[in-house]
Amino acid sequence: MRSALAVFFTLLFIPCLATAQIQLPPAASPIKKIPIAVAVLKAKGDLSVYGKNFTDVLKNDLTNAALFDVRQVNILFSSPFEDIDFEYLDAQKTRYLVSGNFNVSPREVSYDLIVYDVPGRQERMRKKYVVSPRHIRNVVHKFAGELMRELAGLDGFFDSEIVFVRRDGHGSDLFIMDYDGHNAKRLTNHGSSVLSPDCSPDGRQVVFTSDRSWDHDVYSLNFKATRLPAEGKRITRGIHLDNSPSWSPDGRRVAFSRNGDIYIASSSGEILKRLTQSPSIDISPAWSPDSRKIAFVSDRAGAPNIYVISSEGGRAIRITSEGYNTDPVWSPNPLVNRIAFVKVKKSEADIYAIGPDGRGQQRLTSSGKNEHPSWSPDGHYITFSSERLGQRQIYIMYLNGENKLPLSRGKNDSFSTWCVK
Length: 421
Known about the structure:
The chain is mainly beta. It is built from four helices and 30 strands.
């Protein structure tokens, strides 16, 4: 067995640096955004706060999506069709207008939403929702997704969640939040070094690494069926250094690194296959969307680089060069078919993307230490951690690197992974 110290050093070093669809090419820049205005909804009663809150969340969702130019037009409140100043909106080059009203009863809020095609002077879309006041944000996210599907052809990510690592003076633990940073809550209470979470395809479980039991082991936590915070189930044992677990797309297998080689295990931790066996250090496996290939990091050629290998084993193909390359993640969308990763050069760490054949490498970030990329469930967006504002937080960007915006609200957040809700 190779030096445990070498593997442990690598494990510590990497995190510190480390409907119809419109397929916009990853290199396309800038995005041709859809001009849209969102009016504050009118209340049939006298509780207008529900209208403003709805509008604020919707604007934020559309802004985060990168595909919309959310216009600041001089329309404060929704109006009946005959009172809408379409000529003014046309002059502002606004393509769509979101309008509507709501009604409040003691236990629920009902929304009647209309999307107007401004040049056509007609309705494009109408939706109705009835919801309890505490679930209004969920309805906004649902409407934003339906709006994005109607106008842009993409399913969106607004009703997803993000699991991430938050570090404090006593160690680090897993937290989960809505995709936009709201409703954060603690998942674990390890008080140790928790790293590299990966959410299962069904959005119910997360695998992660922890040194709670002295050596590094892989844990699994079903956060949908467990009282939280919880320790989770330890699924690897023995005197090994197990790290960087990754779910297969079917949710039945987990790839991970053990003592510097890539293994594949069942979801319960039973070893199924040893994928690599060499004097090098191989870590950070990431599955392709069809489960047939795995990208991973290896120093077999000297400096760490990204390699791709069949999930059945065989010869690994190197796809990166120059610098220190780590943290690969494969877009779950086979039509996107890109691998995001981190390239470290001197004191800089940036997110790049590349094709699985090593072609089309593209730099996506250029300021601050940017690490730990993760793809959205639809495969068009990337979260990552960055220190660009003086504290480490989770950011979002489109797959071509545009529209970088902060999501989390902690002071030391990293290692994000998207979860379907």
